[in-house]
Amino acid sequence: MKISKKDALIWFEFFSSLPEDEKLMIRQQEIVYATFAQIEAAIDARNDRLMSEIRHLKTLENRTYFVGKESRFPKGCRSCLLGTGLSAVRKTNRCNIACKFCYNYGELDQIPPVGEGMWEIGGTKFYERDIDLLLSIQQKPTGISYVYLEPFMEIEKYYGVIRKFHHAGIHQHLYTNGLLAAEETLGALGEAGLDEIRFNLGACHCADKVIRMIGIAKKHIPCVGIETPMTPEFFKEFCDKKQAILGTDLDFINCAELHLNENNIGNYDGENMYISRHGYISPIWSRELTLRLMKMADQENWEPVVHDCSNHTKFARGLNLRSKEGGWFGASDYGCEFSTIPYWAFLPILRDESFPFLSEEELPDGYKPGQMAF
């Protein structure tokens, strides 16, 4: 069913007016999925055109796309996409800033603590002394990541745990906005055995101090890069300071396609959205900007890898992880992050006259407004 934009808009205006807990009828669900397919097909066509303009576009076993030297592709991402997944290690429940793209936006002061002296690994609580027991019983992952929320709020607590996983030969990377980093703490992380650090330059608005910290981190930590949700603000700020950023000799730039949840979607009200495989909901400009940056990097022969960490990549990540866990054929943890679909979020793109569907057909009998009986 190749629903027209006009009919899709009529139906989505109706769906948006319904109570959140009201379930749609089967034919109404077909209308929803037909609309999503039309939007996604148009997005894919636009992105395919952009990708065709990148002369030296590369893939990592068809799981993701990048440009630049493959030797600089981060091992943390290889672990995520090819290895035994990305095992998250959680300690810190606080952050020093509040970003509108944060998945915890609006609830940063309500994040439960892990527990005094404890770490959360795989959903289980551990003391640092328990890690030796964990490593002696379970199969070691190819990589782990320190996430959620800002590790430098209490970075001195991380050194011992990093040292233990380093001695076990497990690749480790850590995320930070960089605003609290200092040469002393970056040096201590490198000495403890941290393999990779990722600075969220979008969170700090490409602050000069954080750009300096990227250069300092290169003295102490083997692999240093940027990982940031791609937004118009970050794209502009990056371009304004491109020479200074590239001058740090960083290894990679991970451009994450911004996907939204119930906490942060209100910050992007009015933007053109699409839903990828009935899963992540994203503004359409996020991946477009990533592909524009990749084209720039390719044309200018940047040294760092620029990685398209898109919804496609995250779909591949889920398939890989469940496969390594022994899941059934086709199993994945990829899915929608909303308890009910926010139909209102798709009204702007359906009202945008500059965003055409690739092809349209008249709705079949029984699917037109006023005809549906079940």
Task: Describe it.
This protein has 374 residues and is of the alpha/beta class. The protein has two domains: 1-49 and 343-374, no CATH class; 53-339, TIM Barrel, CATH 3.20.20. The chain has twelve helices and 13 strands. It has helices spanning 5-17, 26-52, 75-81, 131-137, 159-167, 183-192, 208-220, 232-240, 242-246, 285-300, 311-324, 347-351; strands spanning 58-59, 65-67, 87-90, 118-121, 124-127, 143-147, 171-176, 196-199, 223-229, 252-256, 273-276, 280-283, 305-309. The strands form two sheets. An eleven-stranded mixed sheet has the order 1-2-13-10-9-8-7-6-3-4-5, sandwiched between helices. Strands 11-12 form a two-stranded antiparallel ribbon. A hairpin with a 5-residue loop joins strand 1 (58-59) and strand 2. Helix 1 packs across helix 2 and helix 6 runs parallel beside helix 7. It is globular, with a radius of gyration of 22 Å. The model has no long low-confidence stretch (mean pLDDT 96).
What CATH architecture of the largest domain would you give?
Alpha-Beta Barrel
Distance between the termini: 18 Å
Q: Biggest β-sheet: count, sense, barrel? A: 11 strands, mixed
Low-confidence stretches: none
Strand order of the largest sheet: 1-2-13-10-9-8-7-6-3-4-5
CATH superfamily of the largest domain: Aldolase class I
User: Which overall shape is indicated by the principal axes computed on the Cα atoms?
Assistant: globular
What's the CATH class of the largest domain, please? Alpha Beta
**Average pLDDT for all residues:** 96
Strand content: 15-25%
| Number of separate strands | 13
Overall radius of gyration: 22 Å
Element-by-element helix/strand order: HHEEHEEEHEHEHEHEHHEEEHEHH
Percent helix, as a range, is: 25-40%
